[in-house]
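Record type: monomer structure entry
Structure origin: computed from sequence
Chain ID: A
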Amino acid sequence: MTLTREELRKLLLPGLAALALAAAGAGMVWGAQQSVRSAELRLAAAEVDRKESTERLTRIAEEEREVKEKLDVYQQLKQLNILGEEHRLEWADAITRIRNQRELLDLRYRVDRQKLLVSAPGKPANVDFYASTMKVELALLHEEDLLRFLADLRASGNAYYSVKQCVITRTGQAATGASIVPRLRAGCEIDLITIIDRAAKR
């Protein structure tokens, strides 16, 4: 079909309009695709941020839990009075009190010099565990006297009492009606452990 020049002139304006509309449509499609791509990139970045935030919150919660556990342990140690320097006067008072309350007939003890057991690395400074070995000799009417003495000693606080060994022997003395005669003797070695936090001393 052959169009005349007049017909072509009449179709020119609608053809240009159609081309313009097609170009506009292609531009809108391209713009929409770019918008979708930009939105996908923002979504991916938001997902990464959310994941990092979740991981940070998890780490913070874990650190808070660890701090709380350590603080609970510290408070327990503080209540037991085993943090800081030795409490030798309190040890002596406790033993005197136990001897009087339990009516122990013969109790002798000696506390050796303090020695470093272990130094645990920490931040910002080490935590040192010290022990002073207490050697105790006491006369017993029966074995339960020793168990009660050790229980009272632990309950007195002022150190962590770690019993290294106790040896019970018979005295060979026969019981008489005139007086109470201890028929057993015990010799014990007990470590009195204290903890010094070097960071707390600064």
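Annotation 1: The longest strand covers residues 127-140.
Annotation 2: Residues 48 and 54 are 10 Å apart (CA to CA).
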